[in-house]
Amino acid sequence: QKEVEQNSGPLSVPEGAIASLNCTYSDRGSQSFFWYRQYSGKSPELIMFIYSNGDKEDGRFTAQLNKASQYVSLLIRDSQPSDSATYLCAVSGTASKLTFGTGTRLQVTL
Amino acid sequence: SQTIHQWPATLVQPVGSPLSLECTVEGTSNPNLYWYRQAAGRGLQLLFYSVGIGQISSEVPQNLSASRPQDRQFILSSKKLLLSDSGFYLCAWRRQLNTEAFFGQGTRLTVV
Fold first, then answer.
1. CA of B46 to nearest chain A CA: how many angstroms apart?
2. How far is CA A62 from CA A14, A54, A58, B68, B110, in A?
3. Measured between CB atoms, which of A46, A96, A103 is closest to B97?
4. Would you write out chain A's pLDDT as a tens digit for each of its 110 residues?
5. From CA A7, how far away is CA A101, in angstroms rounded?
6. Pairwise CB contact (< 8 Å): A32 & B99
7. What is the pLDDT of residues B34-70, one digit of tens each?
8. Residues of chain B with C-beta less than 8 angstroms from the C-beta of A102
9. B6-45: per-residue pLDDT in tens?
10. Residue B61's pLDDT is what?
11. Residues of chain A neighbouring B103 (CB-CB closer than 8 A)
């Protein structure tokens, strides 16, 4: 079982729709969770982080965490073509290790 | 403010040649440092991480090694490169446990 799993996609959504990206993790001791966006050929950039169960909103982005189900998701409202990228989920536990999923490629169509 | 420098941006090396990639962080002390590799179209594979000078944790032994000779310097090395070592190498830092990580611009390595 992979430590952090994501559907590779591509996930295709029309402009203006809500994109829903999902991530599961295997270590129940994981304490912090991050979403990064990566454009082709570039390094990842942080979108959001979440530590507690529930929802956290920042502009058009909402991160959701359910530790009991070992599940974290990212919702992007009013999707724009500029949101087309690969979204990486990252998980950190009690050690200093920071593990990434393989990423989900999002395509926002006009 | 904190910045992370990673060089070179691109590198083409023959099979069997050595490798040295360097990463430095400015504006912070005692950062956690990370080396990741990303193969074409794939996710980030954690190679090494370090919580302090001389302290290296290895996730993927292979033919790579890492060193941290100074607090804000992290070096990735190989004595003999393989074709499979090609990829996008990313250095990252974070302030402490469970905070977000910030990435350098990456080095695109092609082994020929």
1. 7
2. 18, 10, 6, 37, 38
3. A96
4. 679 999 988 999 999 999 999 999 999 999 999 999 999 999 999 999 999 999 999 999 999 999 999 999 999 999 999 999 999 999 998 778 899 999 999 999 99
5. 9
6. yes
7. 999 998 878 899 999 999 999 999 887 678 999 999 9
8. 42-43
9. 999 999 999 999 999 999 999 999 999 999 999 887 889 9
10. 66
11. 43-45
In the block, which residue shows the tokens 């941006």? Answer: B9
**Across the interface, do B101 and A100 touch by the CB < 8 Å criterion?**
no
Burial class (CB in 10 A: 0-12, 13-18, 19+), A72: buried
Residue of B nearest to A105 (CA): B41
Q: What is the pLDDT of residue A53?
A: 95
- Kindly state the tokens that stand for B78: 């190989």
Chain A, nearest residue to B98 by Cα: A32
**What is the C-alpha separation between A106 and A87, in angstroms, rounded?**
7
Please give the interface size between A and B, counted as residue pairs whose CB atoms are below 8 Å apart.
52
A-chain residues within 8 Å CB-CB of B92? 98
Residue with tokens 């292979």: B62
Who contacts A95 (Cβ-Cβ below 8 Å, separation ≥6)? none
B36/A34 Cβ within 8 A: no
For A35-65, b/e burial (b = at least 16 CB within 10 A) is bbbbeeeebbeebbbbeeeeeeeeeebbbbb
